[in-house]
Amino acid sequence: MMKRKFLVISFFHFFIATAVAQVGEYRNDLAIGVNGGYVMSNVAFVTKVPQSQLGGITGGITARYTCEKYFSSICAVTAELNYAQIGWNESILDKNDQPVPLHTDPTQNLAYKRKMTYVQVPLLARLGWGRERNGFQAFIHLGPQIGFFVNDKSESNFDVHQPEFNPSSSTYQYANLRSSHVVAQDTMAVENKFDYGIAVGAGLEFSNRHFGHFMIEGRYYYGLGNIYGNTKRDYFSRSNFGNIVIKCTYLFDIIRTKNSKIK
User: Fold this and answer.
1) Which residues, including other chains, have CB under 8 Å from residue 158's CB and lie 6 or more apart?
2) CA atoms of 117 and 67, how far apart (whole Å)
3) Torsion angle in degrees (nearest 10) through CA of 69, 244, 39, 194
4) 229 or 161: whose pLDDT is higher?
5) Which CATH architecture fits 2-255?
6) Disulfide engineering: 118 pairs with which of 39, 92, 147, 207, CB 3.0-4.6 Å?
7) For the CA atoms of the chain, what is the radius of gyration?
């Protein structure tokens, strides 16, 4: 836990240094806009829960402040306020690694997913290489991200509250058929509503002096927090998010450095 806090604090120090250091060509550019995309997420449970990526949408507002150009690198800080649908999609398999069929309808397989809504706030250091005003620029992002849980909704085609088959009542449940008997997560409410971690991304930007900045980016987020308690008394020792994001962003300039040499 101390190592995680140290990483986050170190990144914040790095952003502050990036924003205030002026050892290259001065810039004072501010651009704001919107972003939107698709996010694929899962939760790294320990004890392990077999799962596949859960697809959802993400979108929000973006602000970028460009402070300098150091040699060929364009240095900036990007902040976002995003809505995101994340969670996990369980892979319910039998001991032969085959999907478990639904007892009432063998043409369907058992399915369970948890969709969770978060407000996410990434604060990212940005380095770019290429054109600033007219043309293409490659860039990378790196920095901390925090998130706030809003609500969640589970979807399943079986009763998650009765994990065993009961012959006397003819109720048919599925925990005894699954290769993984870890099912507590299906009924547990989110305990830790604050999330934090590290985001890293890379992308390509096209800029036009008159129409603004258009970007496409791939990003990965690794959560350092857990959605459930992780003490010795708790069920899971780890339950952190992993998100893969593909997003597009449009920005328009609010403040732009007056320098005819900037291309």
Assistant:
1) 102, 110, 112, 173, 174
2) 33
3) -90
4) 229
5) Beta Barrel (2.40)
6) 147
7) 23
Angle at CA of residue 11, ends 8 and 13, nearest 5°? 115
The mean pLDDT of the chain is 86
Domain residue ranges in the chain: 2-255
Token code pair at residue 98: 């085959």
Give per-residue pLDDT as tens, 67-108: 888 888 999 999 999 999 999 999 888 888 888 887 777 788
Q: In the chain, which ranges are continuous DSSP H helix?
A: 2-20
pTM of the model: 0.83
What are the pLDDT digits (tens) for 170-196? 444 566 677 777 888 888 999 999 999
Q: Where are the beta strands (DSSP E) in the chain?
A: 25-46, 51-52, 54-70, 73-90, 101-102, 105-109, 112-130, 135-156, 194-208, 212-223, 238-255
Q: Please report which confidence band the pLDDT of residue 10 belongs to, taking 50, 70 and 90 as the band edges.
A: low
d(CA 26, CA 189): 50
Contact in structure between 49 and 90 (CB atoms under 8 Å): yes
